[in-house]
Design brief:
single chain, mainly beta, Cathepsin D, subunit A, domain 1, 7% helix, globular
Length: 125
């Protein structure tokens, strides 16, 4: 499957559509764009999904950002479906954005070919 980079990002970045669902009730779902970000260990979802999908806090994890100070943040259980057909349960962080941020917990399940000069990428099966 081939996709184009989102050129509204600066610099352009690889995005593709995903479906985020409540893990126990997949009738509650939202389709969103997802940015592939190899710099993140764990997938992040928009904060707005917590209330919209009635997500349960699953636990907490310590994260460290640019300030290099560990901070404890909640994890939320989700069910994630990718356009490649891969799907499954995972725990995600919430952040203030309108898209999903796919971390290496999901990226490492995929065979991706990034073509930066042509602003395209492919998910190879």
């Amino acid at each position: 499957m081939k996709f184009k980079y989102n050129e509204n990002e600066n610099p352009p970045a690889p995005f593709f559509p995903v479906r985020v669902s409540h893990p126990a009730n997949r009738d509650r779902f939202v389709d969103l764009p997802a940015k592939i970000d190899t710099g993140f260990d764990i997938t992040c979802i928009p904060e707005s999904l917590i209330a919209q999908l009635v997500l349960d806090k699953w636990g907490e994890i310590e994260v460290m950002g640019f300030e290099a100070r560990p901070t404890s943040v909640p994890l939320y259980a989700i069910y994630l479906e990718l356009p490649s057909g891969k799907r499954g349960y995972l725990n995600a962080l919430a952040f203030s954005a309108d898209h999903v941020l796919l971390g290496r917990d999901v990226i490492n399940l995929l065979h991706l070919v990034l073509d930066g000069p042509n602003l395209t990428f492919e998910v190879v099966e």
